[in-house]
């Protein structure tokens, strides 16, 4: 009887609802949002109490983004812009989320607008650099990351900015400037950021094959490290190893990571 009751309960239970697709790769792979979180529910409740509050809209959009609900986050920031069309924060966040769904031109437009409205916003310059890098405009990416480096808020962000600036310099053909950047060690403050290991690879302090440790299990961390190693091989002219590492970044499943996104872009470039 107990087994029959269990089977009946399973039969009438509602089917699990798949989370909405946020991005579909060129190969047809669908990447979905995570389930709603208590943080999203709380942010929605606070916004209901103050529906015209830009701060509450930003909080909701950030919570949605953290749950990989990027399309919803873009809509939320767009709602905010209808209320406050000159709020740099909204362009910064919407631009970031346009990167997440691979709309690089729209991302660059939003992030450039953010920097014009507030030239002191580190996040806007940093993400503008990422958008330009992904678009293949490496000289413009150098300019954005150079501005971002002057205003990094902590050691972790500084390491990430130095890393992207080095990559941009190398891809722009400014190898001497890239070497000087590493030698000057602007990332010398201690941090556990994964970018620190990528920088160690660039400096020859860590073998590329050792960049990923067995303790690295988070999908975003794996994608971040694997792309950095792949790019290092790419600028050395070793496209075969670069391809393998870019493939490893994608196999991580960490599809929101900039390393994952960049690996997709690099493989398309190599195929062309």
Instruction: Provide the CATH top-level class of the largest domain.
Output: Mainly Alpha
CATH superfamily of the largest domain: Tetratricopeptide repeat domain
Portion of residues in beta strands equals under 5%
What CATH calls the topology of the largest domain is Serine Threonine Protein Phosphatase 5, Tetratricopeptide repeat
Task: Please give the CATH architecture of the largest domain.
Answer: Alpha Horseshoe
Q: Looking across the biggest beta sheet, what order are the strands in?
A: 1-2
Low-confidence stretches: 4-16
- The CA-CA distance between the termini, in Å, is 63 Å
**N-to-C SSE string, H for helix and E for strand:** HEEHHHHHHHHHHHHH
Mean pLDDT: 93
Q: How helix-rich are the residues, as a percent range?
A: 55-70%
Helical segment count: 14
- Would you tell me the structural class of the helices and strands? mainly alpha
Describe this structure as you would to a colleague.
Helix content is 67%, strand content 3%. By secondary structure, the protein is mainly α. The chain folds into three domains: 36-85, no CATH class; 101-183, Serine Threonine Protein Phosphatase 5, Tetratricopeptide repeat (Alpha Horseshoe); 212-272, no CATH class. Helix 4 (70-83) runs antiparallel to helix 5 (88-100) and helix 9 (155-171) runs parallel beside helix 11. The model is unreliable at 4-16 (pLDDT under 50).
């Amino acid at each position: 009887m107990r087994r029959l009751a269990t089977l009946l309960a399973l039969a009438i239970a509602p089917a699990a609802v798949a989370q909405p697709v946020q991005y579909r790769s060129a190969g047809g792979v669908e990447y979905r949002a995570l389930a709603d979180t208590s943080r999203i529910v709380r942010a929605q409740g606070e916004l209901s109490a103050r529906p015209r509050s830009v701060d509450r809209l930003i909080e909701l959009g950030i919570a949605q983004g953290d749950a990989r609900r990027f399309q919803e986050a873009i809509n939320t920031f767009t709602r905010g812009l209808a209320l406050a069309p000159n709020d740099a924060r909204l362009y910064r966040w919407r631009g970031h989320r346009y990167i997440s769904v691979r709309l690089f031109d729209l991302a660059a437009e939003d992030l450039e607008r953010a920097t014009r409205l507030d030239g002191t916003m580190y996040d806007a310059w940093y993400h503008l650099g990422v958008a330009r890098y992904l678009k293949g405009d490496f000289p413009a990416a150098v300019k954005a990351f150079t501005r971002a480096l002057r205003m990094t808020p902590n050691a972790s962000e500084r390491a990430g900015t130095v890393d992207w600036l080095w990559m941009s310099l190398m891809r722009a053909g400014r190898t001497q400037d890239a070497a000087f950047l590493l030698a000057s060690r602007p990332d010398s403050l201690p941090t556990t950021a994964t970018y620190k290991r990528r920088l160690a690879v660039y400096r020859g302090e860590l073998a590329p094959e050792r960049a990923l440790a067995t303790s690295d299990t988070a999908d975003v961390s794996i994608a971040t490290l694997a792309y950095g190693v792949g790019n290092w091989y790419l600028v050395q002219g070793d496209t075969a190893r670069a391809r393998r590492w870019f493939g490893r970044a994608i196999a991580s499943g960490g599809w929101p990571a900039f390393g994952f996104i960049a690996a997709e872009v690099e493989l398309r470039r190599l195929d062309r």
